[in-house]
Design a protein that fits this description.
Layout (H helix, E strand, L loop, with lengths): L7 H9 L2 H6 L25 H16 L4 E3 L9 E5 L9 E12 L3 E8 L2 E11 L1 E7 L5 E7 L1 H13 L10 H23 L1
Antiparallel strand pairs: 1-2, 2-3, 3-6, 4-5, 6-7
The protein binds nickel (II) ion.
């Protein structure tokens, strides 16, 4: 997911990373709509290994640099069920979270509408209704199983990111008209950017 403010990105990089990590991690390109890769269904990770952790490190750095609050592996073109997230506010310490093979094992009927954005649909925000609490099961950075309830922004964000694992974008929850408007906006911005750089 994307946020509107961006002053946190660099501060987060300084505080969370050791010098070795900064050398080893790399910022990846984030795919945007209508790239068909974003519609792929991601496959489960068999074992959480150092390669998986390297992927999560790269994803976190890419997300902080964007800046965003959540990122799924498919957004950098890797079809694995891996998500990174950091919901810390601007004045709070960074709090990275890592999810491998996340599942929703229970949810509630009550829906909550949040204004969502997505790094794959830059500069477009719309309200989406989702269950306001979900019970999650996932593997963490170390491959340990975690079961917990998510609520508030955490619930919204994890459902948004888990949609990515199934090739679903938040604009797929909107009307066809709004979805087309979002895609047109992103395509136009990409074209304008290309024109600028070729001039
Ligand atoms: Ni997204």
């Amino acid at each position: 997911m994307a946020v509107i403010t961006d002053s946190q990105a660099l501060a987060n990089l300084d505080e969370t990373l050791s010098p070795t990590q900064i050398v080893e991690m790399s910022i990846k390109q984030i795919l945007t709509v209508p790239n068909p890769v974003l519609k792929q269904v991601s496959r489960p990770v068999e074992n959480v290994t150092d390669d998986t952790r390297k992927l999560m490190d790269d994803m976190l750095q890419t997300m902080y640099a964007a800046p965003g609050i959540g990122l799924a592996a498919i957004q950098i073109g890797i079809p694995l069920r891996v998500i990174v997230m950091d919901l810390a506010g601007e004045d709070e310490k960074p709090a990275p979270r890592y999810f491998v093979n996340p599942e929703i094992i229970e949810d509630v009927e009550e829906l909550k509408a949040w204004e969502e954005g997505c790094l794959s649909v830059p500069d477009f925000y719309e309200e989406v209704e989702r269950p306001e609490r979900v019970k999650l099961r996932y593997l963490n950075y170390y491959g340990e199983e975690v079961v917990e309830w998510a609520e508030g922004m955490y619930a919204t964000c994890i459902q948004h990111e888990m949609d990515h694992l199934n090739g679903v974008l938040f604009i797929d929850h909107l009307s066809r008209l709004k979805r087309q408007r979002a895609i047109r906006k992103v395509k136009k911005a990409a074209r304008d950017k290309q024109l600028e750089t070729s001039e």
